[in-house]
Amino acid sequence: MSKFYITTPIYYVNGEPHIGHAYTTILADAMARHYRQRGADVFFLTGTDEHGLKVQRAAEELGISPKELADKNSASFKRLFEKLELTYDRFIRTTDADHTKVVTEVVNRMKANGDVYLDSYSGWYAASDEAFFDESEIEDGHVKSSGAKVEWVEEKSYFFRLSKYQEPLLEWYNTNPHSVQPDARRNEVASFVASGLRDLSISRTTFDWGIEWPDDPEHVLYVWVDALTNYITGVGAFHDQALFERFWPCDVHLIGKDILRFHAVYWPAFLMSAGVELPHQVFAHGWWMNDGKKMSKSMGNFIDAFELADTYPLDLLRYYLMREMAFGSDGNFVHERVIGRNNSELADNLGNLVNRSQAMTQKFCEGNVPAFHELDGDLGREISLVAEKAQVTLEDMSHLMDEREPHRALERLMEFSSDLNQFIAVTQPWALNKRGETQALESVMYTLLEGVRWLAVMLCAFLPKTSELILAGLGVESKAFESLKWGGLKSGESLTNIDVLFAKMELPVKEEVKEEPKIEAKKEGPKAAEEGIITFDHFMAVELKVGHILSAEKVEGADKLLKLSVDAGEESPRTVVAGIAKSYAPEDLVDQRVAMVANLKPRKVFGTLSQGMLLAVETEDGGLELARYSANVKAGTRIS
Ligand code: ME8
User: Fold this and answer.
1) Of 58, 362, 483, 619, which one has the greatest count of Cβ atoms within 10 A?
2) Given 4.10.410.60, 1.10.730.10, 1.10.287.3510, 3.40.720.10, which CATH number is that of 342-483?
3) Where does the sequence pass through the membrane (predicted)?
């Protein structure tokens, strides 16, 4: 492995970062870290896509210039990536000066190759996808696949001879099975291409937020030509030859499945036309759902990336995102599952392993890495088995990363963690200590600590903070895979104490409530939307009612939650699960009349379907106080 160049899509600056952005960039970060550990010369590129109609319109709505919007939101992505401690080598912006030059050169090369002609375009365009669509792809004024609204466009336009590249593209897919992955995605684009390619309109004249067409200032370049070119600008195309030769062709363009056509059809065709080598691979991952539902702007259920980063420790977030979603398929984000994986996999398996190995080293080996002695018999066999498993895990995980199966690589590492826990159970160091079998005890403890070192090194790409803590505790500096020679841990090294790596967590009750679709402020002019003002109709859409609490009880295993039976003036009482157990004893609530949101979509909280949300304020001491009414107010009365 000599070099590894990985890219993420560059993100639109019309909005704030969400889980999809965080996911792709975290994955790219894990891959970049992994290949660095394997000694590769790595370049990791990410950034923002700032031109085009979509961004121009978003800026107009806010009453600011597109550049102002781009500056603001690009900074927001950068802030997120800093918060997530991502190790990119360049954060590219399509408004960067070097990028304009590279894009202009690409267009000039296409022109020189006879691939561009002027004509007029008429057809459907969806600004939010920044793409043209055929009649067959549209239903009721919206794109079938994405739901984006289309508008009719008729204007003069430069065209790119995409049709010319139909055969070369098919040949590329056929002769390079790795070119587009997973296989199903390659088949999907291959059949799209085989069904016939039409030339592509690559300039617009009806707005101006874009890179100017060389020699024809009336046109701006179609945003996807501009955006895709970032992948070569980022590594110096046409302006830093040494850098370009060092990293191009790209090893993997990581993208989401919705932008496959742009990356697996248009991009290689543009490159062929410009005389640039094709990338090694385009890999399309699936989409995150929010609790089983597709995320969309209109539903207001996009999971905000900053909110995620504030809710969970970084390594847990990385672990969950990479472990939960089979790379290439869709995944479902569920808060209960994050907590579940934290508690049963990170805390109970990995955290426990590290704590036990530390505690036993303190207790039986005076806090130092003991010496290793060759042993015969069962113990000797158990010890060699651990060394073998470590080696096999290393090979498997590297292979799985090469095959773009990071979720399985991570699974293998957690299996090795279980193996080490099992090794403790089988060898019983405490019994060896009791029997005074010092050499056996030392060898077992050495093996355990060496196993933990291997595990921590292999986990660095996935759980960088945790691994660093474990390695620092062992007094180990190198994270390079080269340092993984069995027996590399130095005997006599004294261990430093490691705090609890993963505390057990309870379900964040507030998150439960926050996930419900937001009612978006209707845009009555940019100012109103900006200040979060809603109309009376929006307020009335929230059904607030007085609920009479009939009974209340604790929820097993969740010490913040109470399960209530609430009369809301309906045929039968509702069940409501509320996060108020720290502030109210169940008996204090019976017969109380409280304010309740009655038309929130019911959702499962700790296994119980909750059919309402109680209104409360947070008091200065961090408790909660419910909004209450006197006994004169009838259950079910509407609050307005
Ligand atoms: O498409 N789960 O930018 P973008 C996972 N600027 N990934 C998701 C997702 C979800 N629910 N929703 C969106 C663009 N994504 C262009 C790219 S590259 C030259 C230009 C992913 O900000 C989506 O699949 O709209 C895409 O890969 C990425 O977020 C960026 O989306």
Assistant:
1) 58
2) 1.10.730.10
3) none
